[in-house]
TrEMBL record:
Residues 42-258 form the Solute-binding protein family 3/N-terminal domain. It is found in: Periplasm. GO terms for cellular component: membrane; periplasmic space. It comes from Beijerinckia indica subsp. indica (strain ATCC 9039 / DSM 1715 / NCIMB 8712). The keyword Cytoplasm does not apply. This is Putative aliphatic sulfonates-binding protein. GO terms for molecular function: ATPase-coupled transmembrane transporter activity.
């Protein structure tokens, strides 16, 4: 005898559907709340290949960190500052020029640390021309195509170099390209010159035979290296940022006697030849020779960096002339006086506003 088994399925009434929907919404809110809560124990750092991460990894200062450290890698400072302004990352290392370019546009970012080379001249940046170029002097750049990234350290250096050699920058045709595109354009003759920094500078010299038309040390400039942070991260993650800065400072001190070790890690991380890494590592060390106090002296120097952008109309100043004093977060000066083995004690808190 065959038994018939009947399965009764309850119909989902509107009330039941509403209950399920509310339960789902509650689950999502709870999950997001957990993520947001945990985010205060996560530090998201923007980097460029072979940059901060490679140095800190080589120096061994990334061990036993009492919070989660996440890295985001960018091809240049321009996309890094965009991510910083949007809050996609908390902090990142970049040059003074791209920082000021973003700050003038109203980006909610501040300087939390700064360093500079000894003296007023620095290597690691140059205006390159192809090895067979007929251009022999900076004055011959008039009317020619000069590639760089808008608002970058290369752009700023090009403007300074042209004025230094008596050329009105408006007499040169700027072409704004990313590093990979500009390198290819220079090698094919699509542009006549390229204002660029390391490692792209050394790579173009060694791989393509490009030659410096104007080298960094030829042009008086300080060239500050800046660790910038989003205002929201400063207010919510000050202790984490201080811990990170202390570790990065340890790494820079270590670099002074371990340049070859850093070069090996740099080459592995970037996939570039050790010969390139050795040159870049030496130049990177030169950039970090002096820690700079975040004070009026620095803001005055940054204002001078910004001035050429303003004079030549590179920035639109839709938000008015920026107050460079407010670009600094001097509460982080405490890291400079901290002992080299400090690992993240709480320092005094100071609310930063836009």
């Amino acid at each position: 005898m065959t038994r018939r088994i009947t399965v009764f399925c309850a119909r989902r009434t509107p009330v039941m559907r509403l209950g399920l929907l509310l339960a789902l919404v509650l689950y999502v809110i709870t999950s997001l709340s957990t993520v947001w809560a945990d985010d205060t124990d996560v530090l998201k750092i923007g980097d460029q290949k072979g940059g901060t991460h490679a140095l800190m990894q080589a120096a061994g200062v990334l061990d036993d960190i009492p919070y989660r450290l996440e890295w985001r890698v960018f091809a240049a400072a321009a996309p890094l500052t965009e991510a910083l302004a949007a809050g996609a990352i908390d902090a990142g290392l970049l040059g003074d020029a791209p920082f000021l370019f973003a700050y003038a546009s109203g980006a909610p970012i501040r300087v939390i640390a700064a360093a500079a080379p000894d003296g007023e001249k620095s290597a690691g940046v140059a205006i390159l021309v192809p090895k067979n170029s007929q251009i022999k002097s900076p004055q011959e750049l008039k009317g020619h195509l000069l590639g760089t990234i808008r608002g970058s350290a290369g752009h700023h250096f090009a403007l300074l170099a042209l004025e230094h050699f008596g050329i009105d920058p408006r007499d040169v045709k700027f072409v704004f390209l990313g590093p990979a595109e500009a390198k290819a354009a220079l090698s094919t003759g699509a542009i006549d010159a390229w204002s660029i920094w390391d490692p792209y500078l050394t790579l173009a010299e060694m791989q393509d035979g490009a030659r410096p038309l104007v080298d960094g040390p030829e042009v008086p400039r300080t060239g500050f290296v800046i660790e910038a942070a989003n205002i929201d991260a400063i207010n919510k993650k000050q202790a984490l940022l201080e811990n990170f800065l202390g570790r990065f400072r340890q790494a820079r001190t270590w670099l002074g006697t371990h340049i070859a070790d850093y070069a090996q890690v740099w080459a592995k991380e970037t996939g570039l030849p050790v010969e390139v890494a050795n040159v870049v590592a030496q130049r990177h060390y030169a950039l970090f020779k002096r820690d700079i106090t975040l004070d009026h002296t620095l803001s005055d120097q940054l204002a001078a960096v910004f001035d050429i952008y303003r004079r030549l109309g590179v920035v639109t100043l839709e938000h008015g002339v920026p107050d460079i004093d407010k670009a600094l977060a001097p509460v982080f000066n405490s890291v400079l006086s901290a002992s080299s083995n400090r690992t993240g004690q709480s320092f005094s808190s100071q609310k930063i506003t836009e």
